[in-house]
Hints:
By secondary structure, the chain is an alpha+beta fold. It is built from 9 helices and 10 strands. Helix 4 (136-145) packs across helix 5.
Amino acid sequence: MITAATQTPAIANTYATRDAISADLSTLSNDNVADALKQATLKYRLQQVIDQNESIGVITDVEVTDLQSGKTLVSHDPAMSQFAASINKLPIAMLLLQDLRAGQAHLSDTINWTTAEVSGGYGVYDQPGAPTSATVQQLIFDMLNHSGNTAVRMLVNKTSLGGAFAVNARLQAYPQLVQTRLQIVGPNRFYLGNTTADESLWIMRQVQKTKDSYEQIMQNAMATNIFTDFGVRSQLAGNSYITLANKVGILDDPTGSGTNRHDVGIIYNSETHRSFAYSLLTSNYSTGSDLTTQAETSLKEMGLAILRYAGDKPTSTATPRAQSQVKEYHENKVMY
């Protein structure tokens, strides 16, 4: 028999979540029970995954929001700081949107660089023999679609953004952003620094908030990103009415910033005209591959629950996703 004295913290948390759900449901009218039950089920499923992660040392921070009602559906340690990995390419996109709209930068502006300035990664411009010149629009697409490292470096250092110090000064002006900063190591050198679940979610919402041609370019880049077998995107059922625009962060640095597996995005349902924003951040500091595997699995499990809540239903014509190929996308900590 499980008693309060014998429960592990994970089991205790799960029971506490179940009891809280029951209490919430008891206060509702019949008309609202169905929707509340869906929300309670989502919260319960995500809490189970969170508890499993944290019982073995995978730090997990979660924020899920209904964008129509503004209601927070699930929240777990949303203000805890983690190394952002490529999630902090989102604030660069946010600031560039401001400059493009203000006429301080232009999509057609051409940026040039040398081979010595290239950062390795999965981007078009990260590869040996790649071009050393591109427009701002091409670099934005590569940063958000391929998570290009050379692209973010050029956009920070060689556009209206004016370098990492200027970027941090602008980020600091937002009361919503306490942790989200680039980590500066020299005049033109930086790591992508830290963020939190609630801050990364707020930034993603800003990037996709104002519907114009600039926002559409960024949304399209994220909606077609190359990380099809990772996180939430790997669980898409294949419905034409569901659009997922997201950014992932994948980094292996167990001796420093941790092994990070992150996914932040917005799910749009064109049939119900509802949208949901989520931020799923996980980190661990172990060299064991089992924790990394659990972190990757947990993003898929939470992603599946969020997608189903958003109305992404399984279809007979959907093509099953291949097994995770995330190892193709691993990167070590990159200095930009």
